[in-house]
Write a structure and sequence with these properties.
Pfam families: Ig_3, V-set
Radius of gyration: 25 Å
Order of helices and strands: HEEEEEEEEEEEEEEEEEEE
Number of domains: 2
GO cellular component, one term: neuron projection membrane
Number of strands: 19
CATH topology of the largest domain: Immunoglobulin-like
Shape: elongated
Domain Ig-like: 12-99, 102-205
Largest sheet: 6 strands, mixed
Helix content: under 10%
Strand order of the largest sheet: 2-10-9-4-5-6
CATH class of the largest domain: Mainly Beta
Protein name: Ig-like domain-containing protein
CATH superfamily of the largest domain: Immunoglobulins
Strand content: over 45%
Distance between the termini: 96 Å
Length: 212
């Protein structure tokens, strides 16, 4: 009958064009986008699968954990769960649920990873005075390229103007940064650190030796 078709087409349904798996690094806000067509007067809730905890319903947050927030703009069919400063324990399945009879839901997976910088080679480096210091830093386990990678000697950012012969080549897409200090002197000895945005830093000890 006619009413059967009307009913079928006015039922809410999920638009499957959004990403169902999201990977982020610890501390970097994550967003899960749920798109519901024909929502009508139904409500959209976000539920954490492991303990069936209702995090948000419509625009209200139902958890004491203020890191969870529902984002929605008027007239849009997207309901977004924002997880601010996610931790490893936040990894898992989150369900976007619509209050139809029976309820319909769509599962999203959040992966929270620890991003770690690594300086290739040994953790202590010995070179002769007059040789080059050549360090390569790689950022591991990062879904997004770092927005910056800083190099430090001790507690100070390496200053290019202090002396010539220092160059840094950072390739964000390959997540690597190379530090070259030409004709190193004993004064260039110290603890060198590669510190990318939103990753754990890595350090090596460089000893520049006087002598033949």
């Amino acid at each position: 009958s006619h009413s059967y078709w009307d009913q079928t087409f006015t039922q809410p349904y999920f638009d499957n064009s959004t990403k169902r798996e999201v990977t982020t690094t610890v501390g970097q806000s994550a967003y899960l986008h749920c798109r519901v067509r024909n929502l009508g007067d139904r409500a959209v809730s976000w539920i954490r699968k492991r303990d069936l905890h209702i995090l948000t319903a419509a625009l209200l947050t139902y958890t004491n954990d203020q890191r969870f927030q529902s984002l929605h703009s008027d007239g849009s069919d997207e309901w977004t769960l924002k997880i601010a400063s996610p931790q490893l324990r936040d990894s898992g399945i989150y369900e976007c649920q619509v209050s139809t009879e029976p309820k319909i839901s769509q599962a999203f997976r959040l992966n929270v990873v620890v991003s770690q910088a690594e300086i290739l080679g040994k953790s202590e480096i010995y070179i002769k005075s007059g040789s080059d210091i050549n360090l390569t830093c790689v950022v591991r386990e990062t879904p997004e390229p770092p927005s910056f990678i800083y190099w430090y000697r001790g507690n100070n950012v390496i200053n290019y103007s202090q002396r010539g012969g220092i160059s840094v080549l950072t390739e964000k897409q390959t997540r690597t940064s190379r530090l070259l200090i030409a004709r190193a002197l004993p004064a260039d000895s110290g603890n060198y650190t590669c510190a990318p945005s939103s990753s754990h830093a890595a350090s090596v000890m460089v000893h520049v030796l006087n002598g033949k």
